[in-house]
Amino acid sequence: MSTGHSADLPILPGATLGVLGGGQLGRMFAHAAQRMGYFTAVLDPDADSPAGRVSHHHIHTDYADVDGLARLAGLADAVTTEFENVPAPSLEHLAVARPVSPAASAIAIAQDRIAEKAHFTRCGVPCAPYAVIETAEQLAAVDDQLLPGILKTARLGYDGKGQQRVKTRAELVEAWQAAGCVPCVLEKMLPLEFECSVILARGRDGQIVHFPPQRNLHRDGILAVTEVHPQNMPKTVAQGAVNSAKSIASGLDYVGVLCVEFFALADGSLVVNEMAPRPHNSGHYTMEACDVSQFELQVRTLAGLPLTAPRQHSPAVMLNLLGDLWFPGGEGDGAKPVAPRWSEVLALPGTHLHLYGKLAPRRGRKMGHLTLTGATLESVRANASQAALLLGLPALA
């Protein structure tokens, strides 16, 4: 179920919507809610959190603090989360008093790769062949057919963290020990053609709307480029991804915005990688290229408002902006950050710059993104290539 509390829905503008987590996704949720006439309340332990600094209320405390949760429940008429590693018991606690979406049960599954893969299997959505490794006995019993593979910690892995490639049994043993012998999954490496994702929104009544599937490029485990246009992947692959994402959401009785990431293989088939129970980097383009953004759909699902099918009106390319851009000579010994070439980038037609309000750039830290839109795919890709050149980013694939 989406919530342990029955409330009068819809929750109309003028009410207060709460979010656990103060990062950039919470910030963009707050902006979307405020644009629609809602007040917002953020609970986050960082006094300078990007979302907390733009919200009407910022409860500066730990996610598991009972008093802080009580304050949030007192302020907010409904509560969501901006990232999956918020404690599921905190969401359960809030759901006694207020509508909460997504539900703690969905968050708990997304926090554990073992439970997540079991859910995908129950929904009939294929994963890469894998083995669960929780004990030395399970490690010893791993099938040779799974090598070479990727060893992933079952919990607290994102943006490439908690992952190690292994080619041999010796490397597998060493990697598991280096991970602290915590529960892991070993996934077989498959012949990857490209990566893609589907972002959908599901209401309390079970209605689902979705955006066009996004084609994604990752570098060092972090999303670097997203392209969304009718030519970005074969139609059969796109439809298969949408159908699988819908099955995963329905199987959770999910309420909220959900992103499901896939690997498209060389033979044209798809395997699911993971899900994110929230808006996603690969959906940032929706703020400029669609008539309804992923963040507005997050507001609508939380408040019980009607869901309308989003329409993409412009081809789009999104470039992720990491803290590395502020250190063109490297982030060594006392290097001071240098502002990227924003004026030249913003001179390009159809550029939309989003910086997240983070006070200090650091290598690998997500500082913002740049979305490029236009009338034609050719013009958008040309301007995206020029923007990447100006920013010192690798060329588009």
TrEMBL record:
GO cellular component: cytosol
Key words of the record: ATP-binding, Ligase, Nucleotide-binding, Purine biosynthesis
Sequence ranges assigned to domain ATP-grasp in this UniProt record: 117-303
tRNA processing listed as a keyword: no
Broadest EC class assigned to this enzyme: ligase
Enzyme Commission designation: 6.3.4.18
Top-level taxon of the source organism: Bacteria
The protein's annotated pathway: Purine metabolism; IMP biosynthesis via de novo pathway; 5-amino-1-(5-phospho-D-ribosyl)imidazole-4-carboxylate from 5-amino-1-(5-phospho-D-ribosyl)imidazole (N5-CAIR route): step 1/2
Gene3D superfamilies referenced in this protein's UniProt entry, alphabetically: 3.40.50.20, ATP-grasp fold, A domain (3.30.1490.20), ATP-grasp fold, B domain (3.30.470.20)
Claim: tRNA processing is one of the keywords in the record: no
Protein purpose: Catalyzes the ATP-dependent conversion of 5-aminoimidazole ribonucleotide (AIR) and HCO(3)(-) to N5-carboxyaminoimidazole ribonucleotide (N5-CAIR). Catalyzes the ATP-dependent conversion of 5-aminoimidazole ribonucleotide (AIR) and HCO(3)- to N5-carboxyaminoimidazole ribonucleotide (N5-CAIR).
Similarity remark: Belongs to the PurK/PurT family.
Protein name: N5-carboxyaminoimidazole ribonucleotide synthase
Native organism: Variovorax boronicumulans
Biological classification of the source: Bacteria, Pseudomonadati, Pseudomonadota, Betaproteobacteria, Burkholderiales
